[in-house]
């Protein structure tokens, strides 16, 4: 049964956002509900359990479709590949206690969600809660809408007008009831809840079924062993989940109850706990260090904030915590294929059940009193064909890899992603703090006077900077503060200010006629400062740095002097804000000179302000216009020692590396070259895209960057000498695109069809905002790349979160977004993670193949014996299940990762020709050997179907006894005083010994070593286990101990037959090993077959690569394309990890 969206029955929730869902309306129907309750009782709860697993079935059967307005139950469905359903109950909230008259209605204007949510005259609000976020029914638009945030349609002036005086007490109460508390509510989950949730997992339910069946068959030992292992597994899982729950609770708990001061309209100030805050409240921030308990707009004054995330589920940190509480399922082929394979095993089991019933019926074994036994035998086939330990076995490789990563200082909060790391073929790196050292060192200052650059001032220098506008810019153009006697702020600002040898006198107060006494920062000459003609400078107002604007500005006043504005930021941005006559004519070449050497360059500018207008009344546009260009501050950012070797290792493994940074594009390109991302012989093509007036048209240009054309930069060879090499590089596809964030967004809007082509060879992405970083990662994923992201700051949170494998080099709160965190701030963790991921992935394949073959081998053996109404004995099953398979399952995964990354990846799917061929061939080998042994033993001259002692006489008993029964129930052999439970036969002994040792053979053959894991002989525990198990099996084959044989349901056979069985096993081992090594693991053979049959990869990027290699016009060097079409909106993709409510277009401020 599916969903057919009908009018008013269906809508979208969070459209265009990461957590977009479809929502369907339903109404509970009494008669349907009553029938379901009866079904629960008659099925002993099985139907209720099924509805627990499939909530959509629960809704479809219990309810009828209706409009969302009438619904009391809603069904939610994710819009990703998994289409996961969840069921939510609609609740009603009454606000009548706070609204006594019409004047009490909140927000009389129609555009407020609080006004639209209150139904009149009932004064009720209809709500649902989804993943900790509350949605209310908008009675005007007839849809559910998120509350808990300030609507983003308010302009700056509207925010001042409406909320500048604070909310009234009544408005606060209404909003508090509708929105709920301002907290990240992460309660510690009770153990009993975790226990029930874990026990109701389908895997454990199947185990419960298996255990009940085994108890019914007196297969007590293995049933108890499975119960013990299951309880241990449940205990460890619950313990781990409880530990994570406590850790997450502690992480957010301290932020949930902060005392804040709120301004109430006409009622003054009130102190309250932060969880009582509502959207629209006016906060008063006190002096000193404090935690900000929500996202907020600064409407008056100034404050300094760090990168720590805020509280409340509608904030950035709330989004991250919700992503931990409600993680997205991994869309990985291995897990999808595993489900299909499981279905195949279930189909095998169904065939086996039919075969069992037919065989017992046709052979006269289906008597009335034995029907129950036959049913048990048929059901037993399910537990044989579908091993209950299969899911657990698949996770062992991941668990061991996680432990090894932990020892190396790499921590993982999403273990399933370790397997995905084995498929990474593209890694994005942030630059500053990731590829380069975190700190910046001043290298030089290039001042400008009368539109000409002056002599460079180098750092460190014997003499200080001379007094002048440039000096003043360095002293005041920052957002530094003094906290507990230490200067705090951006490291770049700290370095810049320290170069002046001035100090911050944070205790000074500046008298402002308009605002009275306000707290302003004053900087004064320090003891080691050069002589200055002023007592100090007061910073009156700041326009903080913005990633979107790429600059910051301050308004400052010399004590007793004039007021000036100072601006610093990206040189190209600052130059555009300056009067043209103040910018040196060689500005671009000088900028290129330094950025091409990998320096970070900052532009400085200033202007004098007219007296009379208060600084706070000046707009940013007024301050940042008609500036005078002052010069360039040049800073050095060195590569980390391990950066180049790691990137070379990744390149040798054919793993693409991409730089995603907020820095200057020329600096980024040079760092990419120095780090080895761009080879010396490769060409760099700069892609510039610009929007035209009105943003309805755009242009895109491809320019080749040739450093040897910069006249004042290095003595390079003549252009003509390198041109043939460049042509060769372009002809072979060895070129790299570089673009800025602005160009990237323009291409995404206007040249969408070109974006995949540009990404295919895009290596440097500079001036990228946090949302653009996230968008870039997602666009790479659309090309079927497996993308890793490595970064160290909060700006990387979104990209770390959306990547297949996000690796944080910071242990700060930003690392909450990342599945992996490295204790050592070094990118050396990236190849380490890929190595372990590849090893874990190969281990998963090995374990899956082994568990599949083990179950099929046992399945085939049992079906063969069913032909004679026989089966394996309990101890025979126990030996295979516990002593062989369980021990192998635990130890096979001990093999460590291979130290070298080879230039290809392990397969990512189970349903692939090599793996399927391996499984099918080994099944045929096992089937052939078991049938051969089963048939040939019956042709032996000593064989007797009724006398199990015909082959050889016991040492202690020379009497023959032919009273052995082959029925379902055993009879006592009086002569031998031994119990024959009906399992003993020559066929049983032969098939069991062959199948048991065959399990050891496939374990050895499937234990793949190089090139992704170390050779199997390095796994000493596993090798010792195999040798020990083989020794026990051979002992059982040749022992001739009556008591042991009786216990194991074995019978004595001639030595020649035992040697024959060893021969069969040796042939099987040789053939299986030869096929595995010469065919299955023969990579050149499979590549040849692909070429012969013209097989092409289905990956989007591979197909696109193939097409571009055949396109002589690509890339179009020194050409410009125009787009006059309406821009394609990709806003949903560009948002990344940000709070949409407070994302503002700062260019329009």
Describe this structure as you would to a colleague:
This protein is an alpha+beta fold. Helix content is about 40%, strand content about 15%. The strands form 8 sheets. The protein has an 11-stranded mixed beta sheet, with helices on both faces. Strands 15, 16, 17, 20, 23, 24, 25, 26, 27 and 28 form a 10-stranded antiparallel beta sheet that branches. α8 packs antiparallel against α9 (about 220-255), α27 (about 830-865) runs antiparallel to α30 (about 985-1005) and α29 (about 915-940) packs antiparallel against α33 (about 1055-1080). The longest helix is centred in the last third of the chain and has 38 residues, at about 830-865. Residues about 1-5, about 510-515, about 705-730, about 955-980 and about 1125-1149 have low confidence and may be disordered.
């Amino acid at each position: 049964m599916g969903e057919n969206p009908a009018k008013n029955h269906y809508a979208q929730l969070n459209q265009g956002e990461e957590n977009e869902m479809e929502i369907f309306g339903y109404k509970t129907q009494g008669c349907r509900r009553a029938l379901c309750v009866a079904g629960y009782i008659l099925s002993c709860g099985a139907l209720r359990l099924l509805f627990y697993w499939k909530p959509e079935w629960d809704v479809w059967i219990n309810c009828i479709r209706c409009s969302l307005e009438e619904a009391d139950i809603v069904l939610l469905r994710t819009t990703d590949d998994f289409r996961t359903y969840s069921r939510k109950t609609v609740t009603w909230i009454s606000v009548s206690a706070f609204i006594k008259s019409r004047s009490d209605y909140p927000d009389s204007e129609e555009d407020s969600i609080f006004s639209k949510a209150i139904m009149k005259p009932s004064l009720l609000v209809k709500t649902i809660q989804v993943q900790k976020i509350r949605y209310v029914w908008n009675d005007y638009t007839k849809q559910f809408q998120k509350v808990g945030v300030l609507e983003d349609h308010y302009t700056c002036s509207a925010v001042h007008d409406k909320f500048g005086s604070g909310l009234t007490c009544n408005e606060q109460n209404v909003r508090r009831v509708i929105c709920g508390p301002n907290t990240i509510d992460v309660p510690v989950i009770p153990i009993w809840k975790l226990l029930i949730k874990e026990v109701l997992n389908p895997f454990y339910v199947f185990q419960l079924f298996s255990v009940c069946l085994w108890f019914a068959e007196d297969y007590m030992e293995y049933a108890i062993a499975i119960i013990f292992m299951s309880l241990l597994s449940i205990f460890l899982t619950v313990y781990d989940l409880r530990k994570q729950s406590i850790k997450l609770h502690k992480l957010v708990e301290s932020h949930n109850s902060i005392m804040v001061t709120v301004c109430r309209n006409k009622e003054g100030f009130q102190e309250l706990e932060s969880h009582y805050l509502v959207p629209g409240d006016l906060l008063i921030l006190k002096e000193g260090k404090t935690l900000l308990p929500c996202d907020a707009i600064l409407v008056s004054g100034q404050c300094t904030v760090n990168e720590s995330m805020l509280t409340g589920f509608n904030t950035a940190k709330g989004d991250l915590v919700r992503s931990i509480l409600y993680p997205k399922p991994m869309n990985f082929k291995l897990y999808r294929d595993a489900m299909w394979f499981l279905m195949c095993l279930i189909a095998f089991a169904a065939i086996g059940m039919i075969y069992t019933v037919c065989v017992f019926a046709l052979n006269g074994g289906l008597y009335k009193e034995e029907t129950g036994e036959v049913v048990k035998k048929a059901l037993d086939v399910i537990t044989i064909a579908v091993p209950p330990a299969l899911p657990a076995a698949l996770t062992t490789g991941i668990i061991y890899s996680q432990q090894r990563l932990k020892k190396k200082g790499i921590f993982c909060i999403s273990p399933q992603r370790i397997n995905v790391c084995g498929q990474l073929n593209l890694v994005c790196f942030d630059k500053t703090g990731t590829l380069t050292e975190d700190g910046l060192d001043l290298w030089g200052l290039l001042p400008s006077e009368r539109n000409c650059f002056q002599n460079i001032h180098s750092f460190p220098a014997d003499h200080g900077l001379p007094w002048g506008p440039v000096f003043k810019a360095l002293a005041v153009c920052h957002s530094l503060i003094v906290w507990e006697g230490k200067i705090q702020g951006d490291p770049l600002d700290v370095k810049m200010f320290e170069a002046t040898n001035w100090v911050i006198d944070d205790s000074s107060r500046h008298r402002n006629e308009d605002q009275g006494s306000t707290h302003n920062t004053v900087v004064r000459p320090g003891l080691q400062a050069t002589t200055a003609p002023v007592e100090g400078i007061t910073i009156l107002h700041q326009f903080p740095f913005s990633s979107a604007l790429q600059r910051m500005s301050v308004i400052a006043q010399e004590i007793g002097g004039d007021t000036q504005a100072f601006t610093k930021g990206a040189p190209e941005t600052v130059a555009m804000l300056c009067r043209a006559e103040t910018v040196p004519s060689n500005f671009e070449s000088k900028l290129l000179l330094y950025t091409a050497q990998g320096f970070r360059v900052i532009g400085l500018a200033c202007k004098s302000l007219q007296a009379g207008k208060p600084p706070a009344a000046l707009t940013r546009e007024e301050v940042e216009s008609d500036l005078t260009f002052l010069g360039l501050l040049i800073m050095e950012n060195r590569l980390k020692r391990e950066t180049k070797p790691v990137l070379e290792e990744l390149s040798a493994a054919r793993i693409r590396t991409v730089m995603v940074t907020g820095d200057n594009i020329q600096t980024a390109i040079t760092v990419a070259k120095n780090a080895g991302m761009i080879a010396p012989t490769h060409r760099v093509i700069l892609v510039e895209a610009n929007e035209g007036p009105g943003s309805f048209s755009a242009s895109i240009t491809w320019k080749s960057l040739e450093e040897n054309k910069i006249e004042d930069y290095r003595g390079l060879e003549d252009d003509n000498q390198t041109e043939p090499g460049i042509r060769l590089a372009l002809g072979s596809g060895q070129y790299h695109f570089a673009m800025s964030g602005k160009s990237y967004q323009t291409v995404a809007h206007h040249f969408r069809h070109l974006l995949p082509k540009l990404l295919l060879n895009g290596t440097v992405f500079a001036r990228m905002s946090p949302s653009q970083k996230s968008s870039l990662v997602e666009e790479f994923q659309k090309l079927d790349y497996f993308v890793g992201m490595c970064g160290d700051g909060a700006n990387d949170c979104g990209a770390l979160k959306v990547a297949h494998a996000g690796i944080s080099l910071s242990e700060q709160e930003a690392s909450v977004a990342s599945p992996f965190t490295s204790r050592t701030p070094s990118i050396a963790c990236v190849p380490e993670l890929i190595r372990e991921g590849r090893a874990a992935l190969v281990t998963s394949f090995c374990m899956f193949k082994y568990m599949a073959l083990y179950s099929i081998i046992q399945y085939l053996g049992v079906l063969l014996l069913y032909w004679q109404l026989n089966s394996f004995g309990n101890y025979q099953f126990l030996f295979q299940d516990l002593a062989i398979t369980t021990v192998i399952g635990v130890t096979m995964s001990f093999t460590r990762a291979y130290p070298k990354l080879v230039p290809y990846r392990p397969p990512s799917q189970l349903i692939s020709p090599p793996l399927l061929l391996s499984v099918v061939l080994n099944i045929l080998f096992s089937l052939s050997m078991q049938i051969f042994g089963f048939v040939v033993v019956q042709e032996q001259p000593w064989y007797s179907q009724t006398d199990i002692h015909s082959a050889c006489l016991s040492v202690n008993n020379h009497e023959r006894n032919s009273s052995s029964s082959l029925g379902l129930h055993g009879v006592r052999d009086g002569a031998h005083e031994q119990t024959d439970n009906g399992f003993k036969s020559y066929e049983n002994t032969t098939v069991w010994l062959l199948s048991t040792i065959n399990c050891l053979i496939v374990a050895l053959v499937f234990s793949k070593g190089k090139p992704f894991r170390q050779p199997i002989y390095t796994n000493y525990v596993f090798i010792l286990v195999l040798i020990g198990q083989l020794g026990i099996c051979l002992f059982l084959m040749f022992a001739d101990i009556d008591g042991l044989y009786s216990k194991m349901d074995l019978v004595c056979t001639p030595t020649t037959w035992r040697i024959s069985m060893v021969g069969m096993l040796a042939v099987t081992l040789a053939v299986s090993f030869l096929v595995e090594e010469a065919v299955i693991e023969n990579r050149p053979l499979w590549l040849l077959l692909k070429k012969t049959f013209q097989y092409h990869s289905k990956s989007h990027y591979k197909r696109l690569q193939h097409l571009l290699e055949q396109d002589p016009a690509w890339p179009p060097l020194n050409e410009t394309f125009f787009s006059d079409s309406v821009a394609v909106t990709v806003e949903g993709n560009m948002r990344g990890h940000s709070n949409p409510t407070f994302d503002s277009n700062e260019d329009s401020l």
